[in-house]
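Quick one:
INPUT:
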């Protein structure tokens, strides 16, 4: 059953467009990863500051394989740099883990 890992990223007002731009620059970066089934970046439409990265994986091993890979480290290297030098626009993030427990398909 698909495993859903959600990274909830807190982004200050005014920095969301930059976050979206950085994700767009990495489009396709995870596509070849074993067990990766897709992701969406969700922008808040209310006054929240949490953007959601909804990722879908075959199982926990597949997700861990990516998180511990050089590709992940490379793609997230900005976290250790100051903002003015390509560092993160996010101020914090939280990882959530889910599986589908019910619902109905769209028509
Ligand atoms: C659930 C899986 C994921 C986790 C645990 C994760 C982890 C993080 C964390 C902790 C941050 C904030 C710190 C930082 O800027 O490095 C972040 C930001 C970011 N992540 Fe991820 N991420 C995930 C999925 C993805 C995916 C699928 C992509 C797209 C290829 C991606 C691309 C980015 C980008 C572009 C940023 C913004 C960095 C910035 O502010 O410059 N992440 N991620």
């Amino acid at each position: 059953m698909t495993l859903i890992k959600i990274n909830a990223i807190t982004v200050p007002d005014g920095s969301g467009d930059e976050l979206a731009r950085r994700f767009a620059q990495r489009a396709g970066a995870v596509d070849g990863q074993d067990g990766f089934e897709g992701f969406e970046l969700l922008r808040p439409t209310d006054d929240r500051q949490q953007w959601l990265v909804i990722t879908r994986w075959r199982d926990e091993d597949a997700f861990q394989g990516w998180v511990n890979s050089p590709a992940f480290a490379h793609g997230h290297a900005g976290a250790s740099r100051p903002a003015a030098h390509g560092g993160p626009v996010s101020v914090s993030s939280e990882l959530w883990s889910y599986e589908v427990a019910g619902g109905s398909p769209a028509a």
